[in-house]
Amino acid sequence: MRWMSEQCAFAVEAYFSNNHSYVAVQRAFHTHFGIKPRGPVPDRKSIVLWVENFRTTGSVVKTSSGQQRTIMMPENVEEVRQLILRSPRCSAHKHAVALDISHRSMCRILHEHLHFHPYKMVVVQELLPHDFQNRVTACETLLETLPPDALVFFSDEAHFHISGYVNKQNMCYWSGNNPRELHERPLHSDKVTVWCALLRVGVTGPYFFEEDNHAVTINSQRFVDMIKNFFEPALEKMHLGNVWFQQDGAMAHTARASMTVLRAKFPGRLISLRGDILWAAHSPYLTPCGSFYGDTSRQRFLNIAPQTCFS
Protein backbone atom coordinates (compact mmCIF):
# COMPACT_ATOMS: atom_id res chain seq x y z
CA MET A 1 0.00 0.00 0.00
CA ARG A 2 1.23 3.51 -0.80
CA TRP A 3 1.40 5.86 2.19
CA MET A 4 1.51 9.64 2.14
CA SER A 5 4.51 11.56 3.48
CA GLU A 6 2.42 12.86 6.39
CA GLN A 7 1.57 9.31 7.46
CA CYS A 8 5.19 8.19 7.16
CA ALA A 9 6.37 11.13 9.26
CA PHE A 10 3.80 10.42 11.97
CA ALA A 11 4.86 6.77 12.13
CA VAL A 12 8.51 7.75 12.62
CA GLU A 13 7.62 10.29 15.30
CA ALA A 14 5.42 7.74 17.10
CA TYR A 15 8.22 5.19 16.92
CA PHE A 16 10.63 7.40 18.85
CA SER A 17 7.91 8.62 21.26
CA ASN A 18 6.78 5.10 22.23
CA ASN A 19 10.17 3.60 23.10
CA HIS A 20 10.74 2.01 19.68
CA SER A 21 7.59 -0.10 19.86
CA TYR A 22 6.10 -1.06 16.50
CA VAL A 23 2.79 -2.18 18.04
CA ALA A 24 2.43 1.18 19.78
CA VAL A 25 3.05 2.93 16.44
CA GLN A 26 0.26 0.94 14.76
CA ARG A 27 -2.20 1.71 17.62
CA ALA A 28 -1.37 5.40 17.50
CA PHE A 29 -1.73 5.33 13.72
CA HIS A 30 -5.26 3.87 14.12
CA THR A 31 -6.31 6.59 16.51
CA HIS A 32 -4.66 9.58 14.80
CA PHE A 33 -5.92 8.91 11.27
CA GLY A 34 -9.31 7.49 12.32
CA ILE A 35 -8.78 4.11 10.69
CA LYS A 36 -11.58 1.61 11.18
CA PRO A 37 -10.98 -1.62 13.10
CA ARG A 38 -9.11 -4.13 10.98
CA GLY A 39 -8.29 -1.27 8.60
CA PRO A 40 -4.85 -1.10 6.92
CA VAL A 41 -1.94 0.20 8.96
CA PRO A 42 1.82 0.23 8.21
CA ASP A 43 3.48 -3.10 8.85
CA ARG A 44 6.71 -3.54 10.74
CA LYS A 45 8.81 -3.65 7.55
CA SER A 46 7.51 -0.30 6.33
CA ILE A 47 8.09 1.35 9.70
CA VAL A 48 11.67 0.05 9.79
CA LEU A 49 12.30 1.40 6.29
CA TRP A 50 10.98 4.86 7.16
CA VAL A 51 13.05 4.99 10.34
CA GLU A 52 16.22 3.95 8.52
CA ASN A 53 15.61 6.56 5.80
CA PHE A 54 15.14 9.23 8.47
CA ARG A 55 18.34 8.25 10.27
CA THR A 56 20.49 8.24 7.11
CA THR A 57 18.99 11.07 5.02
CA GLY A 58 16.88 13.10 7.44
CA SER A 59 13.79 12.30 5.37
CA VAL A 60 11.28 9.50 5.50
CA VAL A 61 11.10 9.43 1.69
CA LYS A 62 13.70 7.23 0.03
CA THR A 63 15.98 9.18 -2.31
CA SER A 64 17.50 7.87 -5.50
CA SER A 65 20.79 6.11 -4.91
CA GLY A 66 22.02 6.34 -8.49
CA GLN A 67 23.48 9.22 -10.43
CA GLN A 68 21.18 11.68 -12.07
CA ARG A 69 20.61 10.81 -15.74
CA THR A 70 22.64 13.16 -17.91
CA ILE A 71 22.94 11.11 -21.11
CA MET A 72 20.37 13.16 -22.99
CA MET A 73 21.94 16.51 -22.15
CA PRO A 74 22.42 18.84 -25.16
CA GLU A 75 26.21 18.64 -25.00
CA ASN A 76 26.09 14.83 -25.17
CA VAL A 77 23.67 14.92 -28.09
CA GLU A 78 25.98 17.31 -29.92
CA GLU A 79 28.96 15.04 -29.20
CA VAL A 80 27.08 12.10 -30.73
CA ARG A 81 26.18 14.19 -33.77
CA GLN A 82 29.79 15.21 -34.36
CA LEU A 83 30.98 11.62 -33.97
CA ILE A 84 28.39 10.37 -36.47
CA LEU A 85 29.35 13.07 -38.98
CA ARG A 86 33.01 12.09 -38.70
CA SER A 87 32.40 8.35 -39.01
CA PRO A 88 28.95 7.74 -40.56
CA ARG A 89 29.82 4.16 -41.58
CA CYS A 90 30.55 2.90 -38.05
CA SER A 91 27.80 1.04 -36.25
CA ALA A 92 25.81 2.54 -33.40
CA HIS A 93 27.33 -0.07 -31.09
CA LYS A 94 30.88 1.08 -31.85
CA HIS A 95 29.91 4.71 -31.34
CA ALA A 96 28.32 3.82 -27.99
CA VAL A 97 31.51 2.08 -26.87
CA ALA A 98 33.61 5.05 -27.97
CA LEU A 99 31.49 7.46 -25.91
CA ASP A 100 31.06 5.06 -22.98
CA ILE A 101 27.26 5.09 -23.10
CA SER A 102 24.76 2.29 -23.51
CA HIS A 103 23.61 1.12 -26.92
CA ARG A 104 20.02 1.92 -25.93
CA SER A 105 20.93 5.53 -25.11
CA MET A 106 22.85 5.84 -28.38
CA CYS A 107 19.82 4.66 -30.37
CA ARG A 108 17.52 7.05 -28.50
CA ILE A 109 19.79 9.99 -29.27
CA LEU A 110 20.08 9.02 -32.93
CA HIS A 111 16.34 8.52 -33.45
CA GLU A 112 14.63 10.90 -31.03
CA HIS A 113 17.05 13.82 -30.85
CA LEU A 114 19.03 13.78 -34.10
CA HIS A 115 16.36 12.10 -36.26
CA PHE A 116 19.01 9.94 -37.95
CA HIS A 117 18.12 6.67 -39.66
CA PRO A 118 20.31 3.78 -40.88
CA TYR A 119 20.58 3.43 -44.64
CA LYS A 120 21.88 0.41 -46.52
CA MET A 121 24.71 0.98 -48.97
CA VAL A 122 24.54 -0.17 -52.58
CA VAL A 123 27.72 -1.53 -54.17
CA VAL A 124 28.29 -0.18 -57.69
CA GLN A 125 31.15 0.08 -60.13
CA GLU A 126 33.79 2.54 -59.00
CA LEU A 127 34.12 5.42 -61.45
CA LEU A 128 37.16 7.67 -61.69
CA PRO A 129 36.89 11.32 -62.78
CA HIS A 130 38.22 10.61 -66.29
CA ASP A 131 35.77 7.72 -66.83
CA PHE A 132 32.88 10.11 -67.44
CA GLN A 133 34.72 11.98 -70.18
CA ASN A 134 35.88 8.68 -71.71
CA ARG A 135 32.25 7.56 -71.94
CA VAL A 136 31.21 10.74 -73.71
CA THR A 137 34.18 10.48 -76.07
CA ALA A 138 33.34 6.84 -76.88
CA CYS A 139 29.72 7.76 -77.68
CA GLU A 140 30.75 10.67 -79.88
CA THR A 141 33.25 8.46 -81.73
CA LEU A 142 30.59 5.82 -82.37
CA LEU A 143 28.11 8.38 -83.67
CA GLU A 144 30.71 9.91 -85.99
CA THR A 145 32.26 6.66 -87.23
CA LEU A 146 29.40 4.22 -87.68
CA PRO A 147 27.71 4.49 -91.09
CA PRO A 148 23.91 4.86 -91.20
CA ASP A 149 23.39 1.25 -92.31
CA ALA A 150 25.67 -0.22 -89.60
CA LEU A 151 24.31 -3.09 -87.51
CA VAL A 152 26.06 -3.39 -84.14
CA PHE A 153 26.08 -6.57 -82.09
CA PHE A 154 26.37 -5.62 -78.41
CA SER A 155 27.67 -8.66 -76.50
CA ASP A 156 28.24 -9.59 -72.89
CA GLU A 157 27.95 -12.48 -70.46
CA ALA A 158 26.43 -12.73 -67.00
CA HIS A 159 26.40 -15.16 -64.07
CA PHE A 160 23.13 -16.63 -62.82
CA HIS A 161 23.15 -18.41 -59.45
CA ILE A 162 20.89 -21.45 -59.49
CA SER A 163 20.79 -22.11 -55.73
CA GLY A 164 18.11 -19.47 -55.26
CA TYR A 165 18.20 -16.16 -53.42
CA VAL A 166 16.14 -15.34 -50.36
CA ASN A 167 15.46 -11.76 -49.35
CA LYS A 168 15.06 -12.25 -45.61
CA GLN A 169 13.81 -8.67 -45.17
CA ASN A 170 10.53 -9.75 -46.75
CA MET A 171 10.17 -13.12 -45.00
CA CYS A 172 7.83 -13.50 -42.01
CA TYR A 173 6.71 -16.58 -40.11
CA TRP A 174 3.90 -15.91 -37.64
CA SER A 175 3.76 -18.39 -34.79
CA GLY A 176 3.38 -18.59 -31.05
CA ASN A 177 6.85 -20.09 -30.80
CA ASN A 178 10.05 -19.44 -32.73
CA PRO A 179 10.16 -22.14 -35.44
CA ARG A 180 13.96 -21.73 -35.79
CA GLU A 181 13.66 -21.77 -39.57
CA LEU A 182 17.00 -21.76 -41.42
CA HIS A 183 17.78 -21.09 -45.05
CA GLU A 184 21.02 -22.90 -45.75
CA ARG A 185 23.08 -22.17 -48.84
CA PRO A 186 26.64 -23.05 -49.83
CA LEU A 187 29.45 -20.52 -49.54
CA HIS A 188 30.09 -20.74 -53.28
CA SER A 189 26.73 -21.47 -54.89
CA ASP A 190 26.33 -23.17 -58.25
CA LYS A 191 25.92 -20.82 -61.17
CA VAL A 192 25.73 -20.73 -64.93
CA THR A 193 27.54 -18.30 -67.21
CA VAL A 194 25.47 -17.15 -70.17
CA TRP A 195 26.57 -15.14 -73.21
CA CYS A 196 24.38 -13.40 -75.75
CA ALA A 197 24.60 -10.65 -78.37
CA LEU A 198 21.90 -8.06 -78.98
CA LEU A 199 21.12 -6.51 -82.33
CA ARG A 200 18.30 -4.15 -83.18
CA VAL A 201 16.76 -6.86 -85.34
CA GLY A 202 17.11 -9.72 -82.87
CA VAL A 203 19.09 -11.61 -80.24
CA THR A 204 21.81 -14.19 -80.77
CA GLY A 205 22.04 -16.63 -77.91
CA PRO A 206 21.98 -17.56 -75.18
CA TYR A 207 25.18 -19.58 -75.07
CA PHE A 208 26.06 -21.47 -71.87
CA PHE A 209 29.70 -21.90 -70.93
CA GLU A 210 29.73 -25.39 -69.49
CA GLU A 211 31.50 -28.72 -69.76
CA ASP A 212 29.94 -32.03 -68.72
CA ASN A 213 26.85 -30.11 -67.59
CA HIS A 214 28.92 -28.01 -65.19
CA ALA A 215 29.57 -24.28 -65.49
CA VAL A 216 33.15 -23.35 -66.31
CA THR A 217 35.15 -20.16 -66.13
CA ILE A 218 35.47 -18.18 -69.35
CA ASN A 219 38.98 -18.10 -70.77
CA SER A 220 40.30 -17.12 -74.18
CA GLN A 221 40.13 -20.68 -75.56
CA ARG A 222 36.51 -21.21 -74.52
CA PHE A 223 35.61 -17.76 -75.82
CA VAL A 224 37.20 -18.52 -79.21
CA ASP A 225 35.36 -21.84 -79.37
CA MET A 226 32.09 -20.02 -78.71
CA ILE A 227 32.78 -17.49 -81.49
CA LYS A 228 33.70 -20.16 -84.05
CA ASN A 229 31.18 -22.86 -83.18
CA PHE A 230 28.19 -20.81 -82.09
CA PHE A 231 28.30 -17.13 -83.06
CA GLU A 232 29.73 -17.39 -86.58
CA PRO A 233 27.23 -20.09 -87.73
CA ALA A 234 24.37 -18.06 -86.26
CA LEU A 235 25.63 -14.93 -88.00
CA GLU A 236 25.86 -16.67 -91.37
CA LYS A 237 22.24 -17.79 -91.11
CA MET A 238 21.08 -14.21 -90.61
CA HIS A 239 22.61 -12.95 -93.89
CA LEU A 240 23.36 -9.47 -92.58
CA GLY A 241 25.58 -6.85 -94.12
CA ASN A 242 27.91 -4.24 -92.59
CA VAL A 243 27.88 -5.92 -89.17
CA TRP A 244 29.94 -4.46 -86.31
CA PHE A 245 30.79 -6.28 -83.11
CA GLN A 246 31.10 -4.74 -79.64
CA GLN A 247 32.56 -6.27 -76.48
CA ASP A 248 33.95 -5.00 -73.19
CA GLY A 249 37.54 -5.27 -72.03
CA ALA A 250 37.34 -8.59 -70.18
CA MET A 251 40.59 -10.54 -70.32
CA ALA A 252 39.03 -13.46 -72.20
CA HIS A 253 37.68 -11.05 -74.81
CA THR A 254 40.89 -9.14 -75.44
CA ALA A 255 43.40 -12.00 -75.32
CA ARG A 256 45.56 -12.39 -78.43
CA ALA A 257 43.75 -15.51 -79.66
CA SER A 258 40.33 -13.91 -79.20
CA MET A 259 41.29 -10.65 -80.91
CA THR A 260 42.81 -12.55 -83.88
CA VAL A 261 39.54 -14.39 -84.53
CA LEU A 262 37.39 -11.28 -84.09
CA ARG A 263 39.57 -9.08 -86.34
CA ALA A 264 39.40 -11.72 -89.06
CA LYS A 265 35.63 -11.92 -88.80
CA PHE A 266 35.04 -8.16 -88.41
CA PRO A 267 37.91 -6.39 -90.19
CA GLY A 268 37.83 -2.70 -89.36
CA ARG A 269 34.50 -3.20 -87.57
CA LEU A 270 35.51 -4.26 -84.07
CA ILE A 271 34.47 -2.09 -81.10
CA SER A 272 36.62 -3.21 -78.19
CA LEU A 273 39.60 -2.47 -76.05
CA ARG A 274 42.50 -2.51 -78.53
CA GLY A 275 39.90 -2.74 -81.36
CA ASP A 276 39.19 -0.51 -84.34
CA ILE A 277 37.01 1.72 -82.17
CA LEU A 278 38.04 1.86 -78.52
CA TRP A 279 35.44 0.91 -75.96
CA ALA A 280 35.58 3.02 -72.80
CA ALA A 281 36.51 1.17 -69.62
CA HIS A 282 33.97 0.96 -66.78
CA SER A 283 31.09 1.45 -69.20
CA PRO A 284 28.66 -1.47 -68.77
CA TYR A 285 25.63 0.87 -68.89
CA LEU A 286 26.38 2.02 -72.44
CA THR A 287 25.12 -1.26 -73.88
CA PRO A 288 21.58 -2.66 -73.97
CA CYS A 289 22.92 -5.74 -72.16
CA GLY A 290 23.71 -3.74 -69.04
CA SER A 291 21.48 -0.68 -69.27
CA PHE A 292 18.57 -2.16 -67.31
CA TYR A 293 20.34 -3.17 -64.08
CA GLY A 294 18.37 -0.52 -62.21
CA ASP A 295 16.58 2.78 -62.57
CA THR A 296 19.65 4.81 -61.62
CA SER A 297 21.88 2.91 -64.01
CA ARG A 298 19.34 3.19 -66.81
CA GLN A 299 19.01 6.93 -66.31
CA ARG A 300 22.77 7.42 -66.37
CA PHE A 301 22.93 5.39 -69.57
CA LEU A 302 20.15 7.31 -71.29
CA ASN A 303 21.66 10.66 -70.35
CA ILE A 304 25.03 9.79 -71.88
CA ALA A 305 24.19 7.96 -75.10
CA PRO A 306 20.53 7.88 -76.10
CA GLN A 307 21.25 7.20 -79.79
CA THR A 308 24.29 4.98 -79.78
CA CYS A 309 22.78 1.82 -78.36
CA PHE A 310 19.30 1.75 -79.81
CA SER A 311 19.96 3.04 -83.31
Q: Give the CATH topology of the largest domain.
A: Nucleotidyltransferase, domain 5
Which stretches of 5+ consecutive residues score pLDDT under 50? Answer: 292-311
What is the number of strand segments? 6
- Summed up, the helix count is 11
Report the sheet with the most strands, covering strand number, pairing sense and barrel closure.
Answer: 6 strands, mixed
User: Outline, from the CA principal axes?
Assistant: rod-shaped
Structural class: alpha/beta
Radius of gyration: 39 Å
Classified in CATH, the superfamily of the largest domain is Ribonuclease H-like superfamily/Ribonuclease H
The chain-level mean pLDDT equals: 80
CATH class of the largest domain: Alpha Beta
Strand order of the largest sheet: 4-3-2-1-5-6
Helix content: 40-55%
Percentage of β-strand residues: 5-15%
Q: How many discrete structural domains?
A: 3
Distance between the termini: 86 Å
- What is the string of SSEs from the N terminus onward? HHHHHHHEEEEHEHHEH
Describe the overall structure:
It is built from eleven helices and six strands. The protein has 311 residues and is α/β, with parallel strands linked by helices. The chain folds into three domains: 53 residues; 40 residues; 157 residues, 2-Layer Sandwich (Nucleotidyltransferase, domain 5). It has a six-stranded mixed sheet with strand order 4-3-2-1-5-6, covered by helices on one side. Helix 1 packs across helix 2, helix 1 packs across helix 3 and helix 8 packs parallel to helix 10. The C terminus is likely disordered.
